[in-house]
Every structure is written in C-alpha cells, then in structure tokens.
Amino acid sequence: MANNTTIYDVAGAAKVSLATVSRVMNNPEKVNPETREKVLKVIKELGYRPNAIARGLASRKTTTVGIVLADVSRAAAAQLLGGISDIAKKYDYAIKLFTMAPEEDLKETLRKIVSEQVDGILLLNEELEKEEMDLVINHIQDAQIPLVLCNASYTDKDVPSVSIDYEAATYKLTKDLIESGKKNIYFASTVHKYSSNFFKLQGYEKAMKEANMEPNVFRTSGDVSISTLHFKELLKNHKIDALIGVRDSIAISFMNVAIESGYKVPEDISVIGLQNTKYAVLSRPQLTCLDTPVYDIGAVSMRLLTKYMANEEISDDNILLPHSVVKRKSTN
Amino acid sequence: MANNTTIYDVAGAAKVSLATVSRVMNNPEKVNPETREKVLKVIKELGYRPNAIARGLASRKTTTVGIVLADVSRAAAAQLLGGISDIAKKYDYAIKLFTMAPEEDLKETLRKIVSEQVDGILLLNEELEKEEMDLVINHIQDAQIPLVLCNASYTDKDVPSVSIDYEAATYKLTKDLIESGKKNIYFASTVHKYSSNFFKLQGYEKAMKEANMEPNVFRTSGDVSISTLHFKELLKNHKIDALIGVRDSIAISFMNVAIESGYKVPEDISVIGLQNTKYAVLSRPQLTCLDTPVYDIGAVSMRLLTKYMANEEISDDNILLPHSVVKRKSTN
DNA sequence: CTGAAAGCGCTTACAG
DNA sequence: CTGAAAGCGCTTACAG
Fold first, then answer.
1. What residues make up the domain containing B78?
2. For the range B214-218, what are the long-range contacts, defined as Cβ-Cβ under 8 Å and sequence gap of 24 or more?
C-alpha cells in the first residue's frame, strides 16, 4: 500500500489541528473561510487525499457499495454494471464486486460481504432459486444494509427494486403474435431459476392460456453448440411459426438453425429476443427485440440505493422502467 | 453499515484477550491448540467475521485489488473480469472496480484509486493513448502499488503484464491470407489507441510490407449502424477479398454488409475476427477467429498480481499466453 | 470557529 | 503461549 501524506502532514503544514483539516474536508461551512483557504491550499500542494480505510473506520461509512452477482461475464450483467458504475462515480461511491455462485456456501459468502462493510448492496440476481433469494435477502436485511434489487423484483417481501415489467412485456409480445395469426408459438428459455426469465415465462403462459393455446416451453443451454443441436431436433419434430427467446443469443441461435434448415425468417418463422443486446443488430436478419433498458436499470437502481444510504425520502421503491419493442427484420 | 459482533465480543465469550482472538485468525500456529479450539468454537457460534476495514487500517493490507478499466460493458472486459474474479476469490481478495475515461481528469482518478488503499492494481487498458498510459503507470508505481497489465503490454517500461502476442498472431493470420492468394486484404480497426489493437495492426502491416503489398487500414466505429454505412461505402469503391476485424463485432458487421451486397463468404471474401467472443458462433457463417483466451488472461494476471502482493519470487513478469486460431466457415 | 481527546475495530511488537 | 498497550489515520462530540 502507498505511503501517502496523512492528515497530520496537512495539519502541520497549515499550522492547524487535524480536527480542522478534517472539518475542511467534511464540513467546510463550519470553518472560517480564511483558515479554510489556507488548509485547502496545503491540501492541494501536498496532493492530499484522505485514507479511505481510516475514514471508513472512523465514520462507519465506507462510501462503497457491494454489487452481488452470479456471473460478471454475461452481456446483460456487464451492461448493468456500466449504468451502476457511472452513477456510483457521480455520487462518489466506490464499487466492490462479489460473485455468488449457487453451488457455493451462500451463508459464508454473505458473511464475507457483510464483513466488507459496504454501505449498500445491489443484488443482480440471475442464478438463484427462490429459496436462495429468500436467504440472501434476509441475511442482508438482518445486517441492516440497504439493499436494492437490480433488474429483478421480488413479490414476497418488501424489497426495493428496479426492473421493467417483464411479465407485461412478454404477455403483450405473445399476444401480438397470436393476433397476427401465429399458431405454434414457442418460448425458449434456460434452466429454471427465479430471475427475470421467470416473469417472462409468466407473461408468455398467460397470453397463451387466454387464447386457449397450449404453451410450448423449450429449455436449452446458453452454449450455442448445445442449443444448436437442441433446435435442430426441435425443428425436425415440430411445426413452429414463432419463437421467443429469453436471451438474444438463444433467439439468434434458433434463427440460424432455422434458416440453415431451409426456413425463411420472418416469412416462415418469426423470431423475437427479449433483451436487445448488441447481438441483435449483428444477426442476419436483425432481431426484433423487447428493448430492455439495461444501462438505465443499472443507473436507476444505483441512484435509488444512494437515496437509501442517505436516508432520503423515497416515493417509489419498486420502480418499473418503461420498455418498448424494437421492430427489426426477424418478424413481419 | 451492519452492527456486527466484534473481536471484543469473541474475546469476552471465550475468556481470552482480543490479542489471542486476533492470533487465532491470523497466526493460529502461535496459539495453544486448546485455547485455539475454544476461540474457534466461539467464533463459529457468534458467526464472527473480522471487520475488513479495521483490519485493513491496522495491518495496512486491505486484501483488495483495484481493477482499472475504461468501459465495463465491453464483452472482452466482462470476460476478463470473469477470470480475475474467480482467482481473486480463490486467494481471498476483494475486488474494487474503477472506471477511468480518458476525458476525465486522469490524475484525480488516480489519486482516488490510491486513496482507496488497494493492495494491488490490474490495469485493463482499452482506451488510453500512449502518453496517458505513461502517466497512469508512473503514478501507480510512484505510489508503490503492485501493478499488472491485463490483456496489454508495454514495451517502454518494466511493467509486469499478461497478454498474448497479438502482433505475432495477426502477422501469421495475414501471412496465411497472402499465401492463400488473397490480393486485397483489409484491416478494420477502431480509432487509434495504445491497446491490443495497436499490436494487431503492427502484425498486419508487417506481413503486408514483407509481401510488398500496400496495407489497407480502415477505421470505423464500434457502433454497428455506423460501421454498416462505412462498409457499404467501402465495398462500393474497393475490391476486397479478405478482411480482418480487430473486434468480432466489426468483422461480423462487415460480413453482413458484404453478404447483403451479394458477395459470398468465404467464396468471394474471407472474414476473420481477432477475439473469438460469443458473437463468433452466432454469425452466419460462423466466424473464423484468432482465439484470444480472455478468461485465462484475466485469471493469470490476477494470479501474477497475488505473487507481487505477497512478495513472492517471480520468474517471468511479461507473460504471453499461447494463442490459436479457430477455423470456422468465414474463411476457406 | 478551533483544538484536545476519545474512539472506530483491528494488528503487532513487547513483556512476561 | 498469552495479555497489556500502542498505533493504524481518520471523525466527532465536547469544551472553550
């Protein structure tokens, strides 16, 4: 670690006490303008920056937030992080990253996170089961650390969250497909977890049931080489005229298989992705998508968390951001 | 922040001094097995976890590493983070994320990073100019914080780094294209920065010059809607029979434009990407790529950093991981 | 408005 | 092997 100038050095050089230096940094209005200027000058000359760790210990505030997620390398997680990081910077919070894999000892990981003394936590759930969510939320709330769910929501408990209404969005998309005359609408998802995919599925099933159509839920892998085989099999044995994929990569993987099997998209089969990642404009044809404003969800959730950490008045603690659909060439 | 059980609580319950509790956690071999067991039992019962901030202040070690990058949301950055995070977890280091945009006050950001008291820094450069790199490296080395460059290298200074030999890899790929008879080989990159793209370009130019061919370097945007226009224009005015893209997304964007303009890939034009991200298997045809082992680069660089932080003997401080080429359907 | 002093929760020589 | 004490670099009542 660096051997920096300390508050004592500044106090000495400015011929004031360290308490005054501290005040200049934290409550400048409480110190005489003249002394303030003098101290500020010395701070600048010495390039002084208070030791964040010492400050954290003394004030019991680390101005650090913990981001808890399952897998950093997923495209959606990375984009959420973009929004989070920009707002965190704006409000001068540092970011600590914690990955929490389900196969690990969840409790141990949680204790670790709590011991790191973050002022608030953003939970980006993608991989947890409902019971695990319960455990995680309880643990954090027991530790009295402000918590906001990012790109997720939780109906059983009173937990602040920022997301979009995945159920309503998927319901509407499915219904539109039904009304456009599609008869065999498939829904491709991954393994069952309690995350946004759960709500997407709910919306799809609701629309299908309302139209007295049997839901066709197909679970596959995020790994393209695996899903390709799955989709080949699927197309061989079933008539499909529309498919909605919970991830863009799944939708595109299906689309590629369909086209290579001789189908035309969108003439024979309509394909929709539920993310609108960068993948969506790199496919041929480009993918029609639910436009999930991932960056915004990250940004707004971080902003909400700053409010909790500052004990500000909060009017709405379950924020659903508006969503839209980007019509491209994979649907007609 | 959470009101946790402290070391005093443990000491009290175990009827020992806090020094002993501390020793049980940090130098267990120095304490009598019986007392050790007694203390361990209490620790477990109380679910005690030492306050990381207090520990950091007292020991001047935060067991935290800083990851400095330009943009979290880029696919390559996210995958590097995956490898970093896994190894960090293994060695019990926490991760603090710092974004450093060139337009910001670099010095201020650097001071901020130093003030956060990380034990080591991993620099993921993607967006800096060479002079900025200089500034950043100097600042961190002056602060005496161990530094490792991740997915980058720096020839002017003695800075530990983990990367692959981008120049050699691109040289070889270009040379192979030349030898297979391609006459008009283009290289598509983004704006000029001192990053891996710089070395890729070097390799391309070297191969072209050796063959007495004029390098055709085309700079475009990472934004597909922009690059699409660029590529349409390019194809209209130039004969191209091969293109190498520094990013997969750039290569795919070009490939899509080419195919929609009536060219056949790979029959008329060979296309190669220099990353091998997930995009590469979602394109049609799938993209031949330099296989950059991004996860491994992240993991190895983090491992190297742990060695520096622990003052271990280091045999090689400029590691070049092996690379390979994944031949897919976009080349013949 | 300013300073002296206590304290944040730990670690680490130093005695014993 | 164990404990008392100092100290890490700050903040924050409390006096004045």
1. 63-164+294-325
2. B215/B187, B216/B184, B216/B185, B216/B186, B216/B187, B217/B186, B217/B187, B217/B189, B218/B186, B218/B187, B218/B188, B218/B189
Q: How many domains does chain B have?
A: 2
Q: Which residues of B touch A89 (CB under 8 A)?
A: 99
For B224, the closest chain A residue by CA position comes to A281
Cβ-based contacts with strand C at under 7 Å = A 16-20, 23, 30-32, 34-36, 54, 57-58, 60; B 4, 6-8, 18-19, 21-23, 25-26, 50-51, 54-55, 57-59, 61
In this structure, are A270 and A305 located in the same domain?
no
Query: Is A172 found in the same domain as A152?
Result: no
CA atoms of B141 and B121, how far apart (whole Å): 10
B227 and B301 belong to one structural domain = no
B-chain CB neighbours of A3 within 8 Å are: 144
Q: CA(B50)–C1'(C7) in Å?
A: 18
**pTM value?**
0.93
Task: Tell me, yes or no, whether A264 and A178 share the same domain.
Answer: yes
Q: What is the pLDDT along chain B (332 residues), one digit of tens a residue?
A: 345 789 999 999 999 999 999 999 999 998 999 999 999 999 999 989 999 999 999 999 999 999 999 888 887 888 999 999 999 999 999 999 999 887 788 888 899 999 999 999 999 977 788 888 899 999 999 999 999 999 998 888 889 999 999 999 999 999 999 999 999 999 999 877 768 899 999 999 999 999 999 999 999 988 899 999 999 999 999 999 999 999 999 999 999 999 999 999 999 999 999 999 999 999 999 999 999 999 999 999 999 999 999 988 888 899 999 999 999 999 98
